[in-house]
Amino acid sequence: MKLPRALKHISYNFRLYFINFKLMQRLVNTIKKVLILLILIFAIGCQSNAEDPKPDQLNPISLTKAYPGSISKVDKVELLDGSTGERRTIVDQKTIQQWLNKIKNIELDPDDNQEGRVGYIFGITLFENEKKTLGFIPNEINNIYYKNNEEFLKPIRAIFKEQFRREF
């Protein structure tokens, strides 16, 4: 059975319309997804972290001030070489106290730039009775960045050299 010519033309036009409609639906759905993704990226980028310290709230600090409790109660120090991942643990009380006495009262000045950073060479964790009490790196204590201080860094470098038996 042959369809009249006019019906063939309508059938062909309907198929074209249907195909174009499906393509338009896909295009609209894709655009919606892209817009949602862009809005999410924009919203995440605009969020401020309420925990970030403001430059006018930053004050000089020493390890003694930053330490929660009495720093003289530290009974274990863990050293982490950030370049290799190697760890060394110090439990000798005399070594710990001599080293802490060299660095605990050195004032560290906060860095005006408090943007996050990655990587470090010297990672230090202090413990009391196997409980971690403070972890820090020479230029970051309690999520606040400090200016490089050679007086603070020199004893840190020395204990790393002694414990890892190589230069830092």
Question: What keywords describe this structure?
Answer:
single chain, alpha+beta, Immunoglobulin-like, 2 domains, 6-stranded antiparallel β-sheet, 4 helices, elongated
Offer a quick outline of the entry.
The protein is α+β, with helices and mostly antiparallel strands and 168 residues long. It has 2 domains: 1-47; 55-164, Immunoglobulin-like. The protein has 4 helices and 6 strands; from the N terminus they run ααββαββββα.
Write a structural description.
It is a single chain. With 168 residues, the protein is an alpha+beta fold. It has two domains: 1-47; 55-164, Immunoglobulin-like (Sandwich). The protein is 43% helix and 17% strand. It has helices spanning 5-46, 63-66, 93-103, 150-164, and strands at residues 76-81, 87-90, 122-128, 131-137, 140-141, 144-145. A six-stranded antiparallel β-sheet has the order 2-1-3-4-5-6. Strand 1 and strand 2 (87-90) form a beta hairpin. It is elongated and about 105 Å long. The mean pLDDT is 87.
What's the arrangement of secondary structure elements?
Elements: H1 5-46, H2 63-66, E1 76-81, E2 87-90, H3 93-103, E3 122-128, E4 131-137, E5 140-141, E6 144-145, H4 150-164
Antiparallel strand pairs: 1-2, 1-3, 3-4, 4-5, 5-6
